[in-house]
Amino acid sequence: MSMTNKSSIQSCAEFGSSVLLDINDGDRMTFARLHSTSTLKIGNTKCTLEALVGQPFGAVFEMQSERNSSKLVRMPNVSDVNGRNEKRQQIETDQDSEDVKDRDNRALVDDNKAQTLSSDDIDRMKRDGASGKEIIDALVANSASFETKTAFSQEKYMKKKQKKYAPRVLLRRPSARSICEAYFVKDPRKIGFCRMDTLALMMSLANVGPNSDILVLESLGGLITAAVTERLGGHGSICSTYYTTKRPPIDMVRLLNLDDATALSVLRAPLEKLVAARQSALRSKDQNGVGVAEREALAQALSTLEEPKNSTIGQNATDAVVNDSPSMAVEALSTETPVTESMDVDKETTNIISPAQNTTDGVVEDSQIKDMEAPSTEMSVKQNMDLDQKTSHSLPAEDREEDACELGDKEANPTAVGEGKASKGPRPGNEATSADIFKWANQGFSSLLVAAPELDAWTVVKQLIPLLSSSSPFVIYSPYQQPLAECMFQLQKNNMAIALQLTEPWCREYQVLPLRSHPHMQMSATGGFTLSGIRITNCV
Amino acid sequence: MIWPLLEDTIRKGDKLIQDGDLLIVYESHKQMKAVTVSKGGEFQNRYGLFAHNDWIGKPFGSKVTGKKGGFVHLLAPSPQLWTLVLTHRTQILYIMDISFVLAYLEVRPGCVVMESGTGSGSLTTALARAAAPTGHIYSFDFHEQRAEAARKDFERIGLSNFITVTVRDTQGEGFPEEFANEVDAVFLDLPQPWLVIPSVAKSLRADSPVCSFSPCMEQVQRTCEALTTTEFRDLRTFEVLVRTYETHEEYFGTDIGLDIVNNEIEDATLHTPGSSPPHKRLCPTEMKTTSAEEKTTSNKSEVSGKDNWMKKGPKKGRGRGEQPQGSKCSIVARPEAEAKGHTGYLTFARRAV
Ligand SMILES: C[S@@+](CC[C@H](N)C(=O)[O-])C[C@H]1O[C@@H](n2cnc3c(N)ncnc32)[C@H](O)[C@@H]1O
After folding, report:
1. Composition bias, kind Polar residues: at what positions (chain A) (predicted)?
2. Which of A152, A413, A467, B233 supports an S-S bond with A82, CB 3.0-4.6 Å?
3. Model confidence over A147-165: pLDDT tens digits?
4. Region B262-290: what's the mean pLDDT?
5. Mutate which of B5, B26, B230 to disrupt the A interface (most A C-beta within 10 Å)?
């Protein structure tokens, strides 16, 4: 068997990487972006994250304070120091509780009276620049009752002191699952109370996978879009649609470290445009039948539209300007097309698109659906330019503020401060080009995911299901059961879908220890509900 | 071949059924069958005979009628549907466990994943779909016939390019040496997974995850011991299940034979339609009278608010009979009576750096 596959997974944190910091064995989870100025604060101690640059994900660091400065120091081997391996240590200590070598210099006391070291002593040690380990050692050495403790409580005490005087930071690569889990603990409202198992189930129910075109309508801060993006890995396209003038943020996508192709596969488009384009495309098909010749012609048109992907291209290839200098490109674009309010454009589009006359409909539509312009901004430019220079990908002006907020740093973790942004590479979430919209309108999306608890599920689904190609699955998430039940009922009655299933996932974690295995005492009682189904043809 | 989404990146409208395509014939959630379309072929079920020729050229998702008048839907295959129709040669993993495994193992395009045993290939299919088009699944089972049957299945569903099935006693021999440090994720569904852990540790890249699925806690226990004494950290064990609901209209009686009306307690009112939170719109509404003239004519009519319901009266003719006098109607969801109470425990760990 040849192992020629090059894994695309990033193994080390780089300058500018988004990282998940697991502090003291999951006591706290925090997102950060690695910049020279990023810092982390644990208790009263603050240190920079510089030490993490170039380190492998999975590495463990200890925050060591010496003479008023603290730094993160890489621990040699994880297997001994990681807290979730508490289990391991417990197993060993249980088995060898009489084994003296297991005790010697690691034992500690949790009885104040037995401890001859006072807190003043400890403060003085700190001022003198003692490391966390030295303090812990001193605590051990000055303890009287330590030897009488069971191995188990020795261990527990050590752990407690270690967390306090030498906190551990585990460097993790953020994934959709870990983002979901971290938010579910920290700020579940932000992700609509969607638990990681529910998120995982949604990916299956909606058949999310490479080479598909996926429509997402969400108000969970980008969680769903992030999960879909991760699964597509740059193969296929994601359309994160919106119905508001201001695009709701999908910043969680940026907590993933996406390569350029993957970042560019995440597009945004107003719902109105998608619906208008789809209606137009379907009408054109109705009038012309769905003959093979017709399809070939469409395909031809599509492939011409498709080609410009990944480079900046004008009407013809010779006009192409490789977009290495984003701000310049934007300036050029901005001067060509007047600034338009996005909603106006949308309304106009909806009204203008009339029943298609012929196969050129797509082209007509193309010029009608114009992306709105915005003042130039470096961040808003993508390299993936469309066929028409007049159509820019710049964000509507109000987006820039929204996008400027570093969700990971500011919200998930107020103490880890990321300054500036990772400026390298394209950002996910550019506006879809007319070509993209044209393509989606013609072939339909291959999956639909809705997670907008603030909207009436049936109202949304009724409008969005026609955007799917026939036989494509959809899934709707809600923290509430009732709206999904009503939506399911309507879908059934209106024969719009089959394989309808209203599902509630259940997830329980276990402690596994010899003779002490049992479910965790605390569990999440709900992770939300999903309604899934498969769109069927309506030509009955 | 069959998996439309792995095939043509640009489809032209709905995907049309062609000779040689694999599709899922859907009668109901409990009645589905995988069929490979062939010119002149036939499909027979309780609705009678269906000619494949009538299917060819229709879009996937079409409804087709049998000779006896019943109908089925013709669906494009997906890993989820495949799991529901595949031939069981062993116990298999179902959608909830599969989903959790894919998410936790972070399987994505480009991943190299190792698995043992192959079993009926239910999980393998999902892994392959997730790792395609640039990744690969190496699946090992010591049962020759099962391995062969799985290969045939993978061929049939068009995923064989992404899966290599090898006959090997992984509990006895471990995974092959050439995988050392090359693997992004490992999945074990074996009777004694702990025997394989040292070899898993060798195969995995640093910080990469392993998952072991076992029905019994004793197996989990031993696996965790093996993991903790090998180079693993972040041990976590989960159990995931689903509860499914059926929904229908239900009439709730409001007449309990009392003439005296308690006017003291007024019903709390919901917000008026204009300001109501949208999902409350269909909330139960008391129906005072019913009469034949008030029958709504269309099943498709959309219920858009309380007023609407009051004017038009309850929806009827939905096969559930007339709305009883003195009742109110609600859409209800009830958990389906039968559910899986346990499938297995999923234990995850990551190889230490
Ligand atoms: C429960 S099945 C796996 C089902 C699979 N996960 C699925 O979803 O279809 C377990 C498989 O492990 C295989 N197996 C058992 N012991 C094995 C061993 N020592 N080496 C390799 N395979 C083994 C069996 O032949 C069986 O096919």
Report:
1. 350-361
2. B233
3. 777 777 777 888 888 888 8
4. 55
5. B5
**CB of A26 less than 8 A from some CB of B:** no
Q: Which residues of B touch A484 (CB under 8 A)?
A: 333
Looking at ligand 1, which atom is closest to the CA of residue B146? 27
Of A5, A456, A472, the CB nearest to B110: A5
Contacts of B282 in chain A (CB under 8 A): 486
Number of domains in chain A: 2
What pLDDT score does A411 carry?
A: 36
pLDDT at B272: 62
Give the least confident one: B176-185, B208-217, B252-261, B310-319. Answer: B310-319
Q: Select from B13, B106, B111 the Cβ nearest to the Cβ of A290.
A: B13
- For range B266-273, the mean pLDDT: 74
Q: Is A134 on the interface with B (CB under 8 A)?
A: no
Confidence of residue B258 (pLDDT cuts 50, 70, 90): confident
Beta-carbon separation of B13 and A442 below 8 A: yes
Instruction: State percent of chain B over pLDDT 90.
Output: 69
- Residue A469 falls inside a structural domain: yes
In this structure, what CATH number is given to the domain that contains residue A225?
3.40.50.150
Q: In what order do the strands lie in the sheet with B22-28?
A: B31-36, B22-28, B71-75, B62-65
Kindly determine whether residue B132 and residue A209, on different chains, have CB atoms separated by under 8 Å. Answer: yes
Q: Is residue A294 part of a domain?
A: no
Q: Is residue A60 part of a domain?
A: yes
| 3-state per-residue secondary structure call for chain B | CCCHHHCCCCCCCCCECCCCCEEEEEEECCEEEEEECCCCCEEEECCEEEEHHHHCCCECCEEEECCCCCEEEEECCCHHHHHHHCCCCCCCCCHHHHHHHHHHCCCCCCCEEEEECCCCCHHHHHHHHHHCCCCEEEEEECCHHHHHHHHHHHHHCCCHHHEEEEECCHHHHCCCHHHCCCECEEEECCCCHHHHHHHHHHHECCCCEEEEEECCHHHHHHHHHHHHHCCEEEEEEEEEEEEEEEEEEEEEECCCCCCCCCCCCCCCCCCCCCCCCHHHCCCCEEECCCCHHHCCCCCCCCCCCHHHHHHHCCCCCCCCCCCCCCEEEEEEEEECCCCCCCCCEEEEEEECC
Of the given ranges (A29-38, B260-269, B306-315), which has the lowest mean pLDDT?
B306-315
Residue of A nearest to B242 (CA): A505
- For residue A383, being part of any structural domain is answered with no
Please identify, among A24, A57, A77, the residue that sits at the C-terminal boundary of a domain: A77
All structural domains of chain B, each given as residue ranges with its CATH number in brackets, are 16-77 (3.10.330.20), 81-237+344-351 (3.40.50.150)
Q: How far is the CA of B120 from the centre of ligand 1 (A)?
A: 8
Which residue among B61, B138, B176 places its CB closest to the CB of A537?
Answer: B61
Check whether A388 has a pLDDT greater than 90. Answer: no
Boundaries of domain holding A30: 12-77
pLDDT at A39 over 80: yes
Q: Which residues 271-330 of A are in CB contact (within 8 Å) with B?
A: 285, 290, 295-296, 298-299, 302-303, 306
Say whether residue A534 is in contact with chain B using an 8 A CB cutoff: yes
Look at residue B321 in the predicted model and tell me its pLDDT: 58
Mean of pLDDT values over B223-236: 95
Binding-site entries of B = 120-123, 141, 169, 189
> Which ligand 1 atom is nearest residue B115's CA?
6
- Is the ipTM, as predicted for this complex, more than 0.85? yes
Which residues of A fall within a CB distance of 8 Å from B12?
295-296, 298-299, 302, 442-443
Instruction: Choose among B104, B132, B240: nearest Cβ to A210.
Output: B132
How does pLDDT run across B162-214, given as a tens digit for each residue?
Answer: 999 999 999 999 999 999 999 999 999 999 999 999 999 999 999 999 999 99
